[in-house]
């Protein structure tokens, strides 16, 4: 534990302590220094923190897998729900938006369009909402054991990623059923998922820190998520709805802003790869890469800044 | 060591009425072979811990939606948030080879102090200095009841920071020590409370700790297991570790510890030889 003591830990502890009131005795702080003892709470530097997190990779993976196993352990169908849940969701949305509301106008192969959007959005949504609870829901663990706290948002996102791998199998099968044929672009799907996962980890790190102090967040999140869902063009084509056929410059400008929404961008990217008929805006790859890098680095830095405060309650 | 002893009694003197005057600290009456024995491992210096508690509303404030809205309109803070001053100025020095029992009523700040020593709760003021990383025997927080004992052993070992090779190496030893036998294949939700406690202690004590903090872990388990776990605590002390033990079961403390700290309302009421402190505690 040869970590530099952070200024924050010093400030929290009320500065250098004035241990004993009596004169002529060695203050405890001096005694500690003489024997080379260190403060128990100190935030590690960013490189040290990264290394500690890497050393805990087995914990992160095992924790994610264990949560997935225990999640369905009480249901009769067990792990089958990992496939059934996304399938049933896709079925309901297809019934609602495809058949009843008729949102499929102007979109070729609407079922593939809809389920791709649904599955991609669900991955981000679930990562972010579970990430928001990853610190506040694990206080007993944080108060009992030492580990870099970022391990928890990472584990929660990886848990969602493991579920996503199953959903992706279902998605690809469904897209094939709707009449798409595999192309070479399908080989880029893992790249798209990697970018999205980077974004999801970053976003859940941010929300984990926010959720650790703002306890009302969990009440608000469902509404935020629903708004995000409607704004991300899951059920409709942003280009088709906002711009239409006329190609108005101002409307195109609005649509471009809407495509800057990371969820919309990752959905568009996946549709581009999976559906031959789908042609997204040309800048989609750049938006996706920007969000992946920005969210992961920014989110990690933001989370690390409060490392020693998690668990305070 | 004399100056420390005096200092501790000066801390204790703050609490009037406690029979502290003749109590001397025994840093190490049971000397162990290690050359580091007797040097400080944990120094707690005028430690204060303040908890923020949510949802501790009084009857009058208790919330319906209208009250909550009124509070927002009047810009009052949330009255449910209460501050609890759990530890109020505790100082002591622990040494290599010490097994220190911590006693006191419920809510006297024992567990809070352990968490602060482990570096898991930031102090409000004062400081905790440690040699190496103290670990709380609290691996149960990482375990999942729905999973089998097998999976929980692996998960618990990783949670304590082991690598896969160490997990493999320790696995059989843990199963053996816990004595749960074939139950290791079953979910932990099917275990009796004693079996669960045994498995948790077996996992937590599988790793070598410089400073080990044990919070009420030995309360459950049968006679045989108590003996085994006390032996293991003794082994840890012999490896020049320092063990803190919180328990309401006073015989465990008397049999295991060479020093006892009595906490009362967040302050040290008495600190010293187990027999003397326990006698005073029992008559209080």
UniProtKB/TrEMBL annotation, chain A:
Per the record's keyword annotation, is Membrane included, yes or no?
yes
Bilayer topology reads:
Multi-pass membrane protein
Question: What InterPro entries is this protein classified in?
Answer: ABC2_TM, ABC2_TM_bact-type
Which cellular components does GO assign to this protein?
A: plasma membrane
UniProt main location, coarse: membrane
Kindly give the Pfam families that the UniProt entry links to this protein.
ABC2_membrane
**Listed GO MF terms:** ABC-type transporter activity
Name used for this protein in its record: Transport permease protein
Organism of origin = Streptosporangium canum
UniProtKB/TrEMBL annotation, chain B:
What Pfam families does UniProt report for this protein, alphabetically? ABC_tran (PF00005)
User: Molecular function terms in GO for this entry?
Assistant: ABC-type transporter activity; ATP binding; ATP hydrolysis activity
Entry annotated with the keyword Nucleotide-binding: yes
Q: Which UniProt keywords apply?
A: ATP-binding, Nucleotide-binding, Transport
Q: Domain named ABC transporter: which ranges?
A: 70-284
The answer to whether the entry has keyword Endoplasmic reticulum is no
- SMART domains membership: AAA
The record, for CDD domains, names: ABC_KpsT_Wzt
> Annotated region Disordered: where?
1-38
Known SUPFAM superfamilies for this protein? P-loop containing nucleoside triphosphate hydrolases
Lineage, top-rank taxon, reads Bacteria
Q: Which InterPro entries match?
A: AAA+_ATPase, ABC_transporter-like_ATP-bd, ABC_transpr_TagH-like, Bact_Polysacc_Export_ATP-bd, P-loop_NTPase
Q: Which family does it belong to?
A: Belongs to the ABC transporter superfamily.
What's this protein's name? Answer: Teichoic acid transport system ATP-binding protein
């Amino acid at each position: 534990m040869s970590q530099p003591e952070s200024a924050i830990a010093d400030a929290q502890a009320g500065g250098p302590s004035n241990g004993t009131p009596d004169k002529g005795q060695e203050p405890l702080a001096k005694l500690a220094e003489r024997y080379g003892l260190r403060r128990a709470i100190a935030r590690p530097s960013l490189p040290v923190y990264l290394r500690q997190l890497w050393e805990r990779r087995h914990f992160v993976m095992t924790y994610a897998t264990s949560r997935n196993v225990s999640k369905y352990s009480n249901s009769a169908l067990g792990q089958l729900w990992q496939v059934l849940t996304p399938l049933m969701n896709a079925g309901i949305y297809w019934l609602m938006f495809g058949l009843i509301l008729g949102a499929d106008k102007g979109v070729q192969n609407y079922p593939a369009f809809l389920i791709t959007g649904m599955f991609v959005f669900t991955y981000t949504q679930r990562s972010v909402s579970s990430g928001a609870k990853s610190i506040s829901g694990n206080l007993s663990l944080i108060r009992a054991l030492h580990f870099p706290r970022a391990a928890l948002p990472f584990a929660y996102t990886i848990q969602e990623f493991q579920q996503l791998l199953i959903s992706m199998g279902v998605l690809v099968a469904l897209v094939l059923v709707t009449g798409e044929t595999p192309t070479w672009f399908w080989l880029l799907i893992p790249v798209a998922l990697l970018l999205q996962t980077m974004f999801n980890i970053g976003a859940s790190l941010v929300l984990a820190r926010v959720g650790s102090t703002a306890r009302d967040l969990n009440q608000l999140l469902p509404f935020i998520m629903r708004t995000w869902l409607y704004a991300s063009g899951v059920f409709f084509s942003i280009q088709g709805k906002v711009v239409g056929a006329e190609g108005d410059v101002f409307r195109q400008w609005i649509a471009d802003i809407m495509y800057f929404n990371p969820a919309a961008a990752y959905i568009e990217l996946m549709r581009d790869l999976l559906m031959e008929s789908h042609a997204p805006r040309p800048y989609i790859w750049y938006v996706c890469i920007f969000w992946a890098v920005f969210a992961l680095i920014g989110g990690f830095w933001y989370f690390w800044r409060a490392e020693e405060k998690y668990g305070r309650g | 060591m004399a100056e420390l002893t005096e200092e501790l009694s000066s801390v204790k003197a703050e609490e009037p009425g406690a029979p502290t005057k003749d109590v001397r600290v025994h840093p190490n009456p049971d000397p162990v072979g290690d050359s580091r024995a007797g040097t400080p491992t944990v120094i707690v210096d005028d430690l204060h811990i303040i908890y923020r508690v949510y949802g501790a509303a009084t009857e009058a404030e208790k919330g319906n939606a209208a009250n909550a809205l009124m509070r927002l309109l009047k810009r009052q803070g949330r009255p449910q948030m209460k501050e609890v001053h759990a530890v109020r100025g505790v100082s002591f020095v622990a040494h290599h080879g010490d097994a220190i029992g911590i006693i006191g009523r419920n809510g006297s700040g024992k567990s809070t102090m352990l968490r602060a020593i482990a570096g898991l709760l930031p102090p409000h003021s004062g400081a905790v200095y440690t040699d190496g990383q103290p670990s709380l025997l609290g691996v149960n927080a990482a375990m999942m009841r729905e999973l089998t004992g097998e999976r929980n052993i692996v998960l618990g070992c990783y949670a304590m920071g082991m690598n896969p090779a160490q997990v493999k190496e320790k696995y059989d030893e843990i199963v053996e020590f816990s004595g749960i036998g074939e139950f290791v294949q079953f979910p932990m939700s099917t275990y009796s409370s004693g079996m669960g406690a045994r498995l948790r202690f077996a996992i937590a004590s599988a790793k070598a700790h410089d400073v080990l903090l044990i919070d009420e872990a030995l309360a459950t388990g049968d006679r045989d297991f108590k003996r085994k776990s006390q032996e293991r605590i003794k082994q840890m002390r012999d490896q020049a570790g320092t063990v803190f033990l919180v328990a309401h079961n006073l015989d465990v403390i008397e049999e295991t510890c060479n020093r006892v700290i009595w906490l009362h309302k967040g302050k040290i009421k008495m600190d010293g030889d187990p027999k003397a402190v326990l006698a005073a505690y029992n008559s209080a």
